[in-house]
Write a structure and sequence with these properties.
Oligomer: single chain
CATH architecture: Sandwich
Structural class: alpha+beta
Helix content: 10-25%
Number of helices: 3
Number of strands: 9
Shape: globular
Distance between the termini: 32 Å
Order of helices and strands: EEEEEEEEHHEH
Length: 229
């Protein structure tokens, strides 16, 4: 596998995608995106994403939409998920993990790990080094840049840290196909969204796989010099 044309930054927060142009978002009414146009898969590297999972209903087990999954007391979002897509039209999905399938720690935070598939099977199998409290997404094609999508659906009116709230606050940038987005616009939109969403805003770092497997997300964020919840 080749190194990226530009050295990938060790920290790259998830960004908000504008829907003012023709980027397909048909399956997702509101979503955050993390784009990295110079980054394709690099051997022995892993993307690690941390954020707080919003309370969601226990509908997977047959509960009504107003009944949250334990240990939550009130529903904040009807549904949320993290998806890995190829960053090129029509933005095909590599894999997704929905709220009910995402591991949360005792404080309600998730750790997503995006890495190259080592199993060679279909469907791909998480690597043996993945800790039990992390949720895995396969990288997909190793020669294609990818894009992470955090999807939020139907937030409760009292929940003001959703992607929808960030959109309402103007935390967006134009993302017209074929037109490069100025990096400053991405940074500004990301900082705006993080200010609105707080701990529910996903933060990603790019980490050596060996560092993560031995020392966890904490060492990855420390190595990147990034404050991660």
């Amino acid at each position: 596998m080749e190194e990226p044309a530009q050295e990938a930054p060790s920290a790259h927060p998830i960004r908000r995608r504008s829907r003012s142009h023709k980027t397909p978002v048909a399956t997702s009414p509101t979503q955050l995106t993390s784009t990295s146009p110079h980054r394709s898969c690099v051997s022995n590297k892993t993307a690690v994403v941390r954020g707080k999972g919003a309370p969601f209903p226990d509908t997977y087990n047959g509960a009504p939409v107003w009944q949250p999954v334990e240990p939550f007391h009130k529903v904040a979002l009807r549904y949320w998920s993290m998806c890995n897509n190829e960053q090129g039209q029509p933005y095909p999905v590599v894999a997704c993990q929905a709220d009910y399938a995402t591991q949360l720690d005792s404080q309600g935070f998730y750790t997503y790990v995006i890495s190259e598939d080592e199993s060679g099977t279909q469907p791909p199998v998480p690597p043996a080094w993945l800790p039990p409290n992390a949720t895995w997404l396969p990288w997909g094609a190793i020669d294609v840049p990818n894009i992470l999508l955090l999807r939020n659906m139907l937030p409760a009116s009292r929940f003001r840290q959703s992607v929808q709230a960030a959109e309402a606050a103007g935390c967006t940038f134009d993302n017209e196909p074929g037109v490069p987005v100025p990096y400053e616009d991405i940074v500004n939109a990301g900082q705006c969204a993080q200010g609105v969403m707080g701990a529910y805003y996903p933060v990603a770092v790019y980490c050596d796989t060996a560092v993560f497997s031995k020392h966890g997300w904490q060492e990855c964020s420390a190595a990147a010099g990034v404050t991660v919840p």
